Amino acid sequence: MKRLTILSALAALFIVAAGLPAGAGPGLVNSSHDLRTLQNLGQTNNQVCIYCHTPHRAADQNLIWNHSLGSGNYSFGATGPFGSPGRATTAAGTTLPASTTAFGSGPTKMCMSCHDGSVALGALNNIGDGTPGIIPTTPATLSGETHQIASASGGMGGNHPVAIPYPDRAGAVYNGITTGVTSGFGGAAGSGGWADVTSAQSAGVKLHGGSAAGTFGMECTSCHEPHNDGVATTEGEAGKYFLRVSGDNSALCLACHRK
Ligand code: HEC
Ligand code: HEC
Ligand code: HEC
Ligand code: HEC
C-alpha cells in the first residue's frame, strides 16, 4: 500500500514535470515587467499583458502591440545616454542600423517604446473598453532611469549591436543589412570565432528571422525573454534581467562568441 502511494506520488511528479516546457522560469507576474506594480494609487486596471499587447485595437498588428511606439531616429551612430561617440559599423565592419526605420519589423523597436525614455510607460492604444489613453505610473517614463538604454531621440551608442545579421557562412542578410561576418564558425571555445546558428540556438539564445541559412538576426530578444524574469535561474543575480542564458561565467556571451 505504502509502495503504491510512493509510486503514484512519483507518477504525479513525473506528469507535472513533463507538463512544463523546457527552461520554464518564474514568468511575468510580479516581475519588473508586471507594470501593475508601478501604477499610481487609484488605478483600477488589473491586467498584466495590456502594457504591451491587446486582443483588439492594437497600435501595430506585429505582436498585436498595444504600447505607443517611440518616434526616435534610432541609430548606433548617435550618442546614447551612456555611450559616446556612436559608431556606424561594428569592429568587424558590419553596418549598424541608422535611420528612422532602423529596427525594421523585429521586436527591438517594441522594447525601445519604453526603454528610450520618450513615451509614457502607460501610453496605450487600448486601456480597456477600446479607449486609448495613459495609465499613470511612477516613474511616468524611463527617462533618466537606469533602465533607459537609448536617448529619447534614438541614440543607441553604448549598446551591444542589435537589428543586424547573425554571422553565417552563407553570408547573412537581415533587416536589409548585407555586410555581416562570413568566416570563423563552429570552432571550440577559445577559437575566437562564432557558434553556428544551431549550436547558439541550442545554448538558449533566440535568433530571429527566417528558417533558411543566412537569414538569422540579433534582436534585444536574442538575449532577453521579456516575459520571464530570470529564465536563466542560475544567473548570478537570480531573478534579474530577463536573460535567456545564465550570466554566470558569461555563459550568455559564450553561446555566440567562441572566446
Ligand atoms: C513588457 C512588455 C510585454 C509584456 C507585459 C508582455 N509581453 Fe508578450 N511579448 C513582448 C515582446 C517584446 C514580444 C516579442 C518577443 C520575441 O520576439 O522574442 C512578445 C511576444 C509575445 C508572444 C509571441 C511570441 C512568443 O514569445 O510566444 C506572445 C504569445 C505573448 N507575447 C504573449 C503575452 C502574454 C499572454 C502576456 C501577459 C501575460 C504578455 N505577452 C506580456 C512584450 C511583452
Ligand atoms: C511597456 C513598457 C516596457 C516595454 C515595452 C519593455 N520594457 Fe523592459 N522594463 C520596463 C520597466 C518599467 C522596467 C523597470 C521596472 C522597475 O523599475 O522595476 C523594465 C525593466 C527591464 C529590464 C531589467 C530587469 C531587471 O530585472 O532589472 C530588462 C532587462 C528589460 N526591461 C528588457 C526589456 C526588453 C528586452 C524589452 C523588449 C523585448 C522590454 N524590456 C520591453 C518597461 C518596459
Ligand atoms: C548580447 C546580449 C544582450 C542584448 C542583445 C541586449 N541585452 Fe540587455 N542586458 C544584457 C545583459 C547581460 C544584462 C545584465 C547586465 C547589465 O546590467 O548590463 C542586460 C541588462 C539590461 C537592462 C537592465 C540593466 C541596464 O543596463 O539598464 C535593460 C533595461 C536591458 N538590458 C534592455 C535591453 C534592450 C532594450 C535591448 C535591445 C536594444 C537589449 N537589452 C539587448 C544582455 C543583452
Ligand atoms: C545571440 C548572439 C550573441 C550573444 C549572446 C552575444 N553576442 Fe556579442 N555579438 C553578436 C553579434 C552578431 C555581433 C556583431 C557581429 C558583427 O560584427 O557582424 C556581436 C558583437 C560583439 C562585440 C563587438 C561590438 C562591435 O561593435 O564591434 C562585442 C565586444 C561583443 N559582441 C561582446 C559580447 C558580450 C560581452 C556578450 C555577453 C554579454 C555578447 N557579446 C553576447 C552576437 C552575440
Give a structural overview.
It is a single chain. Residues 4-22 have low confidence and may be disordered. It contains five helices and five strands, in the order ααβββαββαα. It is mainly alpha-helical and 259 residues long. The radius of gyration is 21 Å and the shape is globular. 16% of the residues lie in helices and 4% in strands.
Task: Describe the protein's topology.
Elements: H1 2-19, H2 108-115, E1 123-124, E2 133-134, E3 164-165, H3 197-203, E4 208-209, E5 216-218, H4 220-223, H5 251-254
Antiparallel strand pairs: 1-2, 3-5, 4-5
Bound molecules: heme C (4 copies).
Strand content: under 5%
Overall 3D shape: globular
Query: What is the SS-derived class?
Result: mainly alpha
Rg of Cα set: 21 Å
The number of helical elements comes to 5
* Mean residue pLDDT: 86
* Series of secondary-structure elements, N-terminal to C-terminal: HHEEEHEEHH
List keywords for this structure.
single chain, mainly alpha, 3-stranded antiparallel β-sheet, 5 helices
Summarize the structure.
By secondary structure, the chain is mainly alpha-helical.
